[in-house]
């Protein structure tokens, strides 16, 4: 198998580190052709749909793509911004803000880049661009706090498949999950508290996570457990009693059983039971997207209000909230530990003085 052409090597250059923030992906436009291209790439991933390939391709090409592409395009059109897809816009802002935060914290040689698992900028292209710019140490940071074989593992597949064609592979570190990381939980709590300060507090906080087929849990996928751990930690941080919050799962697809309880039926039941106000958030999504802005803030809102609910509040995702940028920096720093960093002259001098002081202290203690 031929390998990709290597960029010219320059002797004496300082090896750089990079962080690749990888999100799921998005169509290029809210149009049927663009959505069809995106769905085709997404739904052909064997990590996403574990049905025998021949059978699944028949279903995909004959039933799903011809009909779902137009339906999804109309939904994307309801949330599309002037500057593009919300998921892409917020992920770009996160990468830019993370870069600035890391520089502020002394990581002057770390480049942050954004990539998509499906769509553009494609993850393999971003990895090639970083290599051409001298990145020899790369941290891959998924935008998925909770690990799942359908999401995080798919990113690993793309990374490993890409490097099968590379002769000189950089040093790699892969962030598997951060569902219980203090910085992530604190950012979620800050988001909720800020919203409550501005809009009051509802009778129930509904934490809606993206659903996956139940069989993945039975086969050993930790996603379900990690979602519930996130919810418990956030509830404890917000000082919520067990009856003041609940965990649900959204975005069910197909006829198979998925993780339960399902978000839409649960919200309908709450409304029929007389709950007047609920606050809904999506902790598993770090950027607002179709599943949060259209499904949760539009469709599920309608489900609640049409069944007697009076006051429905959607709490936005973390997006580029400063508290989340700090949390991301803390997560990134933990995975940069041990890699050399470039220092400014002042930092290098301070480091030299500290080392000299420590050396003198050690000599005195030994004497």
Please give a structural write-up.
- The strands form two sheets. Strands 2-1-3-4 form a four-stranded parallel β-sheet, sandwiched between helices. The protein has a four-stranded parallel β-sheet with strand order 6-5-7-8, sandwiched between helices.
- Helix 1 (32-43) crosses helix 2 (53-79), helix 3 crosses helix 11 and helix 9 (263-272) runs parallel beside helix 10.
- The protein is 50% helix and 14% strand.
- The chain is α/β, with parallel strands linked by helices.
- The chain has two domains: 16-178 and 321-341, Rossmann fold, CATH 3.40.50; 182-314, Rossmann fold.
Features:
367 residues; alpha/beta; Rossmann fold; four-stranded parallel β-sheet; 50% helix; globular; lyase activity; Ferrochelatase; iron; lyase
SSE string, helices as H and strands as E: EHHHEHEHEHEHHEHEHEHH
| Count of domains | 2
Distance from N terminus to C terminus (CA atoms, Å) equals 63 Å
CATH structural class of the largest domain: Alpha Beta
Strand order of the largest sheet: 2-1-3-4
Q: Helicity level, as a percent range? A: 40-55%
Number of helices: 12
Kindly name the structural category: alpha/beta
What about the largest sheet? Answer: 4 strands, parallel
Q: Remind me, CATH topology of the largest domain?
A: Rossmann fold
**Averaged pLDDT:** 93
Number of strands: 8
Going by CATH, the architecture of the largest domain would be 3-Layer(aba) Sandwich
